[in-house]
Amino acid sequence: MRVLICGAGIAGLTLAWWLRRGGAEVTIVEKAAGPRSDGYMIDFFGSGYDVAERMGVLGELRGIAADIGELVYLDGNGGRAAGLRYGSASAAVGGRVLSVMRGGLESVLRSSLDPGVEIRYGTSVGAVRDVPEGVEAELTDGTVSRAGLLVGADGIHSVVRRLVFGPEERYLHPLGYHTASYLIRDDELAGRIGGRAMLVNVPDRQAGLYPVRDGRLAAFLVHARGGTAPPADPHAEIMARYGGMGELVDRVLAHCPQDPYYDCVAQIRMPRWSRGRTILIGDAAHAVSLMAGQGASTAMGGAYTLAVELLGADVGEALERYERRMRPFIAGKQESGRAAAGWMVPHRAWRISVRNRLFRLADLPGSGAVMGRAFRRLSGSIVPAA
Ligand SMILES: Cc1cc2nc3c(=O)[nH]c(=O)nc-3n(C[C@H](O)[C@H](O)[C@H](O)COP(=O)(O)OP(=O)(O)OC[C@H]3O[C@@H](n4cnc5c(N)ncnc54)[C@H](O)[C@@H]3O)c2cc1C
C-alpha cells in the first residue's frame, strides 16, 4: 500500500512509523522548511504514553523530559494560592506521565522513523483528485503524487481538510480563549523558579512558566477572547492583556518576541473524518484543545489505531472500523476539554478560589486514591492493554 501523509507532526510521524513497520510505502510532505525542535511544554500520558511505549521510545522521552517537582498557582500579587506536587500526581498513575516539549516529542518520533520513509520539507498539498486506484495529489513543489490513501495530519488549520471537506469555519469551534507561547533564556529567573511550574491566574487570564530541560523557560499564556481571528499585532495584544499581573509576569512579558506562537483555543468537530480515499487524523480531524491537555496523546492514539486497522483490512473497511472505534473516545476527550476550560482559566474570582481549594485538598497526604481515580478517568487510553 502506498500512503501519502500531509504533515510531519505528532500524528503524521506516528502513523508513518506504524505503517512502515507493517510494510507500507510512506511519503510525508511537510510545509515547514525543516525539522523543528521547540514549541511549548506538554503533559504526556494516556494513549500517547502507551503508543510511545510500544514504539520503544519511552527511554528517549524520559531523557528529554522536564524535571518538574511542583505545580504552583500564584495570585495576581505573587502570593502562593495552591500547589500540587508532581510526584503525587504521577504516582497516582503509576508514573506513566511525562512533561516534554512538543518539539522534543516530534524529534524523538522523527529520529525513530525507518529511513525508508521519505519526508519532503517545504512542501504541501495544493489539490486533490479521486482516481480509480485511490487519490492523486498535486504538490506545491510542482510534482504529482498518487497513493492508495491520502492522510491529512496537518494540524488544526489543515489544508487537506479545506481541500476535501470544505472551509475551516464549518468545523472549527472556538472555546472563547486565545493562547500564546514562547521560550525564554533568563538564568536568574530560571534559578528562582527552580524545578517548579508557576501559573499566575486572575479572572480571564493565566500566565504560566515551565522549566525546560536545557535551562530555558517555556512561557504559556491563555486569555479570554472570542472569535478565531488573531489580533493584527499579537505582541501588542499580549502586552495589553497580561500587564498588571505582577513582577513575575512582567518579567515574562519583557522576553516576548515580536512573533510568538499565537492561536485561538478551539476544537475541530466533524461528522466524518474520511471521504473517498482521504482521511484526517490528529488535530486536523478532532482537535480536543489545550484545555483537554491530551491533544498530542490523542493524536498518537488515533494514528496507532488507524495503522492497526489499515494493516489488517481493505482500506474502505479499515476507515469505517477506525471511525467506529475512535468516535466515542474522541467525544469523551472533547467533552472534558470543554468542561475543563472554565476551571483552567475561570472568568470569575470565586471559581479560581474553588479550583485552588480543590488543588490544596488533592495535595494533602492520603488523597492519592481519590486523585488516582480522577486522573485515570481523565487519561483513559484508546490503546488496548498489552
Ligand atoms: C499551548 C498548547 C499546549 C498544549 N498542551 C498539550 C498537553 O499538555 N498535552 C497534549 O497532549 N497536547 C497538548 N497540546 C495539543 C497538542 O500540541 C496538539 O494536539 C498536537 O500537537 C496535535 O498533533 P498533530 O500532529 O495532529 O498536529 P500538529 O502537531 O499541529 O502537527 C501538524 C504538522 O503539519 C504541518 N502542516 C501544517 N499545515 C501544513 C500544510 N498545509 N502542508 C504540510 N504540512 C502542514 C505542521 O507544520 C506540523 O508539522 C497543546 C497545544 C497548545 C497549542
Automatic annotation (TrEMBL):
<dbReference type="GO" id="GO:0071949">
    <property type="term" value="F:FAD binding"/>
</dbReference>
<dbReference type="Pfam" id="PF01494">
    <property type="entry name" value="FAD_binding_3"/>
</dbReference>
<dbReference type="InterPro" id="IPR002938">
    <property type="entry name" value="FAD-bd"/>
</dbReference>
<dbReference type="InterPro" id="IPR051704">
    <property type="entry name" value="FAD_aromatic-hydroxylase"/>
</dbReference>
<dbReference type="InterPro" id="IPR036188">
    <property type="entry name" value="FAD/NAD-bd_sf"/>
</dbReference>
<feature type="domain" description="FAD-binding">
    <location>
        <begin position="2"/>
        <end position="329"/>
    </location>
</feature>
<protein>
    <submittedName>
        <fullName>FAD-dependent oxidoreductase</fullName>
    </submittedName>
</protein>
